C-alpha cells in the first residue's frame, strides 16, 4: 500500500463510487432473491481490502462472505478512491466503510444505495485476518494523517504498546466547521447515514450527536430588537421560530446544520429571493424547546433535503433522562479542565449501562484489546442516548457522578471510559483517586474554615442509582 499522503483529487463523487461498488457486489454475490437489505463492510488491513457481507430478510440477518477481496479485482481501485474521497485534512478518513443496498419490488427490484463511514471505531476481526495492529494504524495515518485530537484513543494505545510513533498534523491543519458552512458536522454526518438507510440505530446516533454542539434556527418572522450592548437579539425581541406543518396535521420545529440547508428551505416559500435570519442555538436547547412546548410533535433537522425527523417521545426520552451536558461538551471541545469540572461538580450525574445477571444489575466494561484478557475498563455515559447507541437492550441507570467514579474504584476497575463512541475520555484508577481525594480535601478545608461538623457530603447510599425509562411510545431507544 502507498505511504504517500492523500490529497484532494478530481474524479467521481462518493455516490458514483458507491454505485460502482454496489454494482460489483450485486454481480459477484450469489444470493436468493427476496432480501430487503445487503450490508457490506469494507476495511484496509495488512495490505489487503477485507469484506464482510450480511443479508437482511425481514427480522432475520444471514451472515455471508467474510475475507479479503481477491488481489487484482476490478473493484479495488474504486474502494481506494472512496477512501480518498472521504478524507478531510486533519480529521482523517474511514477505518471501516459500510455499503448498504436496499432492495424493493422483487422479482424485479429497484435498489437504493447508501453508506456509513466509521472514522474512529476500531476495526474488529471478521474472519482469519486477526486484530488490527499498530502497523495497520501507522499505514493508515501515513496515508491519511490527522491532528492529535482526531487520533482515536485505541489507535494511540496500540501504537504506544508496540513502540510505534504515529504521524500527526499541526493543530491548525483541520478546516473549521464554520468555514465549510456547517455548524454541526457530526450531526450532519449522522443525518446523512440515517437518510441513506433509516433505522432506529441511526436515529439514536442523530440524537446522540445533538446532545452537544449547535444548530441553526430560522427566526425570519421574529421582531428583533438590538440589545443595550449591541447584541443581535436583545431582551425586547419577540422570537418566532420557524415551524413546519406536516401532511398528517402534525407540527415540527425546524432546525439546520448549516446556513446552506436553511437557505434551501427558505427559497421554497420565498420565490423573490432573499436570505433567512438565522439564530445559532445549542442543539440540546433545540431539543428542550420541543420537549417543553406541546405544539411540536417533532423536530426536523435539515428538512430541505435528506433530513431527519425525531418524534416528541424520543425527544422527551433524551431530555428527561439524567445527563451530563458539561462533560459531553468538554469532550467535543477537547477541554480537560471543563471535563474535570463536569465530572466532579456536586450535582453532576453519570449513567451506567447494565445487564441483569442472576437477578443483579451488572455494569458493562469495554472490550479489552488483547484476546482473552479480563475486561478492566468500566464504561460510564453522559446521556441515555450514549448508552442506547452502544446497545439499546441495556438497562440504563443514573448516579451522582462522584458516586459512580467511587463505584468504579471500589469494583477494582483499572480505568474508566466516559462514553463508548467518540469523543470519549479515559481516566485511570490512579487519576480518579487523586481527583476525588483533592475534591474531598478542598471540601474538608472549606468546612473547617466555616467551623462545620465533618460529615461525608455525598457518601454513596446502599442503592443510589435510578432507572431511566424508555420513550413513551416504545418505538425509540429504551431500556430493553
Please explain how this structure is put together.
Helix 6 (200-209) runs antiparallel to helix 12 (384-390) and helix 8 packs across helix 9 (312-320). Helices cover 32% and strands 22% of the residues. It is globular. It has 3 domains: 14-174, no CATH class; 185-220 and 239-320, 3-Layer(aba) Sandwich (Trna Endonuclease, Chain: A, domain 1); 325-467, no CATH class. Mean pLDDT is 86; it is low at 1-10, 453-463 and 472-480. The protein has helices at residues 14-28, 76-85, 134-143, 153-162, 185-196, 200-209, 259-269, 283-292, 312-320, 325-333, 336-344, 384-390, 401-410, 429-450, and strands spanning 37-45, 48-57, 60-68, 96-104, 110-118, 214-218, 243-245, 251-255, 278-282, 298-301, 308-311, 349-357, 360-363, 377-380, 395-400, 415-418, 425-428, 466-467. It has 480 residues and is α+β, with helices and mostly antiparallel strands. It has a 5-stranded antiparallel sheet, with helices on both faces. Strands 7-8-10-11 form a 4-stranded mixed sheet. A 4-stranded antiparallel sheet has the order 13-12-15-18. The chain starts with 13 loop residues before the first helix and ends in a 13-residue tail after the last strand. This is SseB protein N-terminal domain-containing protein. It holds the Pfam family SseB. Residues 440-480 are annotated as: Disordered.
